[in-house]
């Protein structure tokens, strides 16, 4: 039976591209929301979930840090997708005929220089791949869509310009999640550990908890805070570190952190990928 990997969005979304690149042998399952992606794996409708974590230009993806700890799933891999934005229109339409484009809200400012140069007005859409699908149905010749090359291929649209994003480094990081963790692997480029924790409401708890990573030589690549249940005192932190919990320095650092926390949950232990080091 063909295995499936779930993603949020319409076919042709950048999350779909991430599935295609990371798991080309699996069937990609489109879902309406991040919650639906998670539920697809929990119910057995999909074997894996592809979820975006952060973008190099716009930071973390809204709500994702809240959803991951509550999902019951485990991070088993990370994936990076270079966001290459293409402007596409109906077959036979020339670029100078386009006066309006529709795209997900985050793509429009990423292509602002190109749009201004060509006097094209941007309109936000819930989903760029969905906008591509709607353009085919509407047949509006003056309208274009900003989306991935994959979306153009799927919906039969003609690409009028490629790589129109303002910044060439624009990349989205995804995590691949499963019902079962896998802590047995050792990656050629090292391991990553992702965890969430809630500090005790005492003076300098975060400062003291972080000290264990410094004294044990453990590199923390990401640390972000967010409130829990609307409380101004119960702050939760999301962290990525280099290393495996079985490594002695990591084990000591986590033990020291745990002393200053109300809770600490490991979300995943997984191999670092090459793009992380480029």
Automatic annotation (TrEMBL):
Biological or metabolic pathway of the protein: Amino-acid biosynthesis; L-phenylalanine biosynthesis; phenylpyruvate from prephenate: step 1/1
Keywords, in A-Z order: Amino-acid biosynthesis, Aromatic amino acid biosynthesis, Lyase, Phenylalanine biosynthesis
CDD domains for the chain: ACT_CM-PDT (cd04905), PBP2_Ct-PDT_like (cd13631)
Domain of life where this protein originates: Bacteria
Keyword Lyase belongs to the record: yes
GO cellular component terms, semicolon-separated: cytoplasm
GO MF annotations in UniProt: prephenate dehydratase activity
Domain named ACT: residues: 194-271
GO biological process, one term: L-phenylalanine biosynthetic process
Top-level class of the enzyme under EC nomenclature: lyase
A Pfam family hit: PDT
Sequence ranges assigned to domain Prephenate dehydratase in this UniProt record: 4-179
Catalysed conversion reaction: prephenate + H(+) = 3-phenylpyruvate + CO2 + H2O
Enzyme Commission numbers on file: 4.2.1.51
UniProt KW Cytoplasm keyword: no
Name the UniProt record assigns to this protein: prephenate dehydratase
């Amino acid at each position: 039976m063909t295995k499936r990997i779930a993603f949020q969005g319409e076919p042709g979304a950048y999350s779909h591209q991430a599935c295609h690149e990371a798991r080309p042998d699996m069937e990609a399952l489109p879902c309406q929301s991040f919650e639906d992606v998670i539920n697809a794996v929990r119910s057995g409708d999909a074997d894996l979930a592809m979820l975006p974590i952060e973008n190099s230009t716009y930071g973390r993806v809204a709500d994702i840090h809240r959803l991951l700890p509550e999902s019951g799933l485990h991070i088993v891999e990370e994936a990076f997708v270079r966001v290459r934005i293409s402007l596409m229109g109906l077959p036979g339409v020339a670029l100078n005929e386009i006066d309006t484009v529709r795209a997900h809200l985050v793509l429009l400012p990423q292509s602002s220089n190109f749009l201004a140069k060509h006097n094209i007005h941007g309109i936000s859409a819930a989903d760029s791949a969905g906008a591509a699908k709607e353009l085919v149905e509407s047949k509006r010749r003056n309208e274009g869509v900003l989306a991935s090359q994959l979306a153009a291929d799927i919906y039969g649209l003609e690409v009028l310009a490629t790589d129109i994003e303002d910044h060439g480094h624009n990349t989205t990081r995804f995590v691949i999640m499963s019902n079962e963790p896998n802590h047995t692997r050792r990656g050629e480029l090292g391991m990553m550990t992702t965890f969430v924790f809630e500090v005790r409401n005492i003076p300098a708890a975060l400062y003291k908890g972080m000290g264990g990573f410094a004294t044990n030589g453990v590199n923390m690549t990401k640390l972000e805070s967010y409130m829990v249940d609307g409380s101004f005192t119960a702050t939760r932190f999301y962290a990525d570190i280099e290393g495996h919990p079985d490594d002695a320095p990591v084990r000591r650092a986590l033990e020291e952190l745990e002393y200053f926390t109300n809770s600490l949950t490991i979300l995943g232990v997984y191999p670092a990928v090459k793009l992380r080091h480029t």
